[in-house]
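Trying the structure run again after the queue cleared.
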Amino acid sequence: MKKWWSLSLSLALMGSAVLPVSAFAAETAPAQQQPAETAPAATEELTPAMIAALDYADALENIIQYEDKAADAFNSVGMVSASNRKAVYSKLNNIIVPNYSKFYYHLKQIKPSGKEVTKLHNYYLQGAALQLEGMQLIKKSLYGAKINWTTYNQGQTKLKSGKAKIDLFINGFEKYMDKLQ
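Done. Tokens:
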């Protein structure tokens, strides 16, 4: 019996790592609710770089639901064995891969503005592509009557490589947002 490695999908991580960007965006929006005397001091001019980063974060927020569905289903699997092979394959085929494919498709449609955000976005694209390939390999490994452990391990390797790229994105985006504030 082999362990089904927990996949730290990017949005599972982003829920804690990058969403402060959205909180930052929310801080600028309710300026009308503040008393008139403190409103000018509390609001700052947004630079073009800040606007680009916030627009990018908003675009990501619009596609989070697809990755969340895939991550929740993937992380609920636990371990893969001959006895649960069919159930895991079914989840991969019906929930995980289709939702992550939608997420990746929409992620590719995002065209960030700004050199730094574009560079970070490319890490995210590379990581998401590797993770999708890994999920597809794992699904393929579970298709037959017996688990193909070679293909399964190749899928796990792709997932790890994808996670490393996504970690580069997350850490880079956090540092970039800190620099902008």
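The chain has one domain: 8-28+46-180. Worth checking whether this holds up in the mutant runs.
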